[in-house]
Specification:
Blueprint: E1 2-6, H1 10-22, E2 26-31, H2 34-43, E3 45-51, E4 56-61, E5 63-67, H3 71-79, E6 83-86, H4 93-110, E7 116-120, H5 127-136, H6 141-150, E8 151-152, E9 156-159, E10 175-178, E11 182-186, E12 199-202, H7 206-229, H8 235-238, H9 242-263, H10 267-281, H11 290-293, H12 297-300, H13 308-316, H14 322-333, H15 340-352, H16 354-362, H17 369-382
């Protein structure tokens, strides 16, 4: 079995690639960084260090890489692959979809009878759907029929914290990860890759995906944004702050109530999941920088992402959402100067005011109750 993974960064090497090699896949990474591609090809192996109370090290061997610009070799790799996975950042899915589309057209001619699965492993809701739409855009009927018959596009939920922590490396491509992971894939959309090591195959992915995006990614962002206001550096430091811990618990309580109402998810199981997340946030060995977690607030504050989406679910079910509003407001208060997306938000606030900015970036209607509450919470956080 052959796999091609787009994105040879920390998540690609330390999570997805790690599990694919454990499953016995012949693995080829694809990356835009020629230096990273060169290192992978020259070394052919790297260490994955799991950080917790005890530190463990595993070696991933027999890996290779292709540069994203090497269209000929990329097309050859995809033509014979059984699985294509991606961890490139949700913002890059549409553009990468165009690259994959051209490779799939060549595969349709050279290897039309071999099924393939393509899975986008991103911190976004239904990321594979975004990729699939990009691949299908303006396609002819023959190509669309080929995709429908031979290519699976399962969505997934991925969960492993991979921080930019400093640690002693044996090689430049070694990677440190937390000592926990979860990878849920919707089973009904899989064409052939139904036995990946460590994967939980589920019939209905939506509850698992939204639980993870809301409760982990949503409160991860909340901790980063509130922690930044209080001048903490790391997630594990910020979560020890009683006010931030209370804000996390309030966010979790509201999001869990929404998930219970929407999917009838067990309340006690959700509480157990919440408690486990807080323990993970307290992992001091990760040294997880707030600015890494808070990076790109434009995406994190968008209508279908980790903060606004649970708010909308609360509204749909007539539930309170004050804690979620606090997280959204904290995102608008995040003015880290080295984050260009944070600067974009601050520019809009300074030009047109906070209410206009909230409406623009969240897609919520100006003058609506959620926007009014966000403005009030923003003023409380910033003192403006």
């Amino acid at each position: 079995m052959k796999a091609v993974h787009f994105g040879a960064g920390n998540i690609g090497r330390g999570f997805i690639g790690y599990l694919l090699r454990k499953s016995g896949y012949d693995l080829t990474f694809v990356d835009i960084s020629e230096e990273l591609v060169k290192n992978i090809n020259s070394l052919g192996r790297y260490n994955v260090i799991s950080l917790g109370e005890t530190k463990t090290q595993e070696t991933v061997t027999d890996v290779k890489a292709i540069g994203l610009s090497n269209k000929e070799n990329l097309a050859k790799a995809i033509s014979s692959a059984d699985l294509v996975t991606l961890s490139i950042g949700a913002n890059h899915l549409e553009s990468t979809g165009k690259v994959i589309k051209e490779a799939l057209k060549k595969r349709q001619k050279s290897n039309p009878g071999q099924p393939l699965d393509i899975i986008a492993c991103e911190n976004a809701l239904f990321a594979t759907d975004i990729l699939r739409k990009s691949i299908e855009e303006n396609a002819d009927g023959d190509f669309l029929a080929y995709l429908k018959k031979m290519v699976g596009f399962p969505n997934c939920a991925v969960d492993r914290i991979v921080p930019n922590v400093s640690f002693k490396k044996e090689s430049p491509i070694d990677v440190a990860v937390e000592n926990f992971y979860e990878w849920d894939i919707e089973s009904g959309a899989v064409k052939k890759n139904n036995n990946i090591s460590g994967v939980n195959y589920v019939e209905n992915l939506a509850p698992f995906l939204k639980r993870k995006i809301f409760l982990l990614n949503g409160t991860h962002a909340l901790i980063a944004y509130l922690g930044y206001q209080k001048h903490y550096k790391y997630i594990h430091e910020a979560i020890q702050d009683s006010a931030i811990r209370k804000a996390v618990e309030e966010f979790h309580s509201e999001a869990c109530a929404a998930l219970n109402a929407e999917y009838n998810m067990d309340a006690s199981a959700l509480k157990e999941y919440s408690d486990k997340l807080i323990r993970r946030f307290q992992n001091q060995y990760l040294q997880d920088d707030l600015t890494r977690v808070g990076r790109d607030p434009v995406r994190k504050l968008s209508h279908n992402d980790r903060l606004v989406s649970p708010l909308l679910m609360c509204i749909d079910h007539g539930l309170k959402y004050d804690g979620i509003v606090t997280a959204i407001a904290a995102g608008f208060a995040y003015d880290y100067k080295n984050d260009p997306k944070a600067a974009e938000i601050q520019k809009e606030i300074h030009k047109n005011g906070i209410e206009s900015a909230v409406g623009k970036f969240t897609g919520l209607a100006n003058g609506s109750e959620p926007v009014k509450k966000t403005v009030t919470a923003y003023e409380e956080i910033t003192g403006r």
